[in-house]
Design brief:
Layout: H1 6-14, E1 31-35, E2 38-39, E3 47-54, E4 57-68, H2 71-74, E5 86-93, E6 108-110, H3 117-127, H4 144-172, H5 177-204, H6 207-212, H7 217-227, H8 238-254, H9 275-288, H10 292-298, H11 301-308, E7 311-312, E8 331-332, H12 335-357, H13 360-372, H14 379-386, H15 394-408, H16 417-423
Length: 424
């Protein structure tokens, strides 16, 4: 017998897509379903708060789902007290009696003759599709209210995921919100290519030292570039000689240790995202304001843009990197990068802060901020647009990125509102 995926059995139980006539356990006791319970996506039994009548008795508890009964023992549930409140073992094939950790027998219901093989074949064809997303052909038939509901769920899920990483960063820094923000902001400026060296730079550059010299832009530039290791490999020009002198002073005074400059990647990045340029932009942000976290938690979008809009002048108007001249141009944190920073830093900070303090208003402000920002422009969002799922703001584009990367690419169609709608 072909193995039926457990997620499919979850699905047909959750939506009642099986024959309900004369249900009975493996030992012949009649089963009446009063409530199928709630799907548990965390550790423990698969469905909670299930209500059943088995024989003459009514039971409230959990359901655990497997392809065959013996999987219960294969997963060591017979030794786990967390599964002692399972009132029904739901399987496709019943091949073994199973017991709780206390030795109590658990009733079993087999669905092998109670589901539609045609529906299962439709599901198999669906998830084995070679299309960009499995639901490509039926996507336009899905009601708009379902799509809106999915976007809300996906955006919330993405904010949960990103804020969890922010909270992990706080844990690594003994609950220091400003340090977690510093690291997150630095990594966002680094993009995919230089996120890791920016993380190292943030770890190695004490905020206390930055704060002491935040009113001196030249010293901050020397501090950040020196800590990045970029002042040690130069054929110095006049500007770099001064930077090197200032950094030597700071490193001696505070006992600083520069990182290895070879961590930085100048390719494949655009000149406007060159590591040295982004590092100086980061230093300028920390020269603008102390207590950046407090500001980002409360600021309106126009004030956030004003803060993030760094215009490079002087030496940096004609350089993308140290000592190498470039064509004179405006080198700044423009609107596109501002949007990236508000999406990946400010909104995440607000959502994480709301989680820490149990304040829904901060979570709501994260969502509101995404709704005020234009949608991202990348290959994934453009493809969704071709398929009829357009984005009017960053709330939409973040939702669709989450959907593609964390669900469609994993063929997680049975947990997707659109996938379930088409399969039903």
């Amino acid at each position: 017998m072909k193995r039926i995926p457990e997620e499919y059995i979850h699905y047909i139980w959750q939506y009642g897509l099986f024959d309900h006539q004369e249900l009975s356990t493996a030992d012949g006791s009649a089963i009446e379903i009063i409530h199928r319970g709630f799907h548990n996506h965390h550790a423990g039994p698969d469905f909670s708060n299930v209500r059943l009548r088995i024989g003459p008795d009514e039971w409230v508890g959990h359901i655990e789902i497997h392809f065959k009964s013996s999987d219960w023992n294969s997963h060591s549930h017979q030794h786990d007290p967390a599964y002692d409140n399972v009132i029904l073992h739901l399987v496709f094939l019943h091949d073994k009696e199973i017991y709780t950790s206390k030795g109590g027998a658990i009733p079993t219901l087999s669905l092998s003759k109670r589901f539609s093989i045609d529906h299962f074949k439709k599901y198999e064809t669906f998830v084995q599709s070679k299309n960009w997303v499995a639901c490509e052909q039926g996507l336009k038939e899905v009601p708009s209210i379902k799509v809106l509901s999915l976007k809300e769920r996906m955006c919330a899920e993405r904010l949960e995921d990103k804020s969890s990483r922010f909270l992990q960063e706080m844990e690594r820094n003994q609950g220091d919100l400003e340090q977690a923000l510093f690291t997150t902001l630095a990594m966002a400026l680094g993009g995919k290519v230089n996120a890791e060296p920016f993380r190292i730079l943030a770890y190695n550059t004490p905020l206390e030292v930055i704060g002491k010299h935040s009113d001196d832009g030249s010293l901050l530039e020397a501090l950040f570039l020196g800590q990045a290791g970029l002042l040690s490999l130069l054929e110095p020009d006049e500007h770099c000689i001064k930077l090197k002198k200032d950094y030597d002073f700071l490193s001696h005074k505070y006992g600083l240790q520069a990182m290895n400059a070879t961590a930085w990647k100048n390719a494949p990045v655009r000149p406007s995202s060159a590591p040295a340029l982004r590092i100086v932009q980061l230093s300028r942000l920390y020269g603008k304001k102390k207590g950046i976290a407090g500001f980002m938690l409360e600021a309106e979008i126009k004030d956030l843009r004003s803060f993030l809009e760094i215009e490079m002048d002087g030496y940096w108007s004609e350089h993308h990197s140290l000592t190498r001249k470039s064509k004179t141009s405006r080198k700044r944190i423009g609107q596109a990068m501002q949007d990236i920073l508000m999406i990946n830093v400010v909104a995440v900070l607000r959502y994480a802060y709301g989680r820490i303090h149990g304040e829904q208003s901060f979570k709501d402000s994260a969502v509101s901020l995404l709704e005020e920002i234009g949608p991202e422009d990348n290959a994934i969002i453009r493809k969704w647009d071709e398929l009829g799922l357009g984005s009017s703001n960053a709330f939409d584009s973040q939702a669709l990125l989450q959907l593609k990367k964390q669900h469609c690419d994993l063929k997680d169609c049975l947990r997707c509102i659109i996938g379930r709608e088409i399969l039903r």
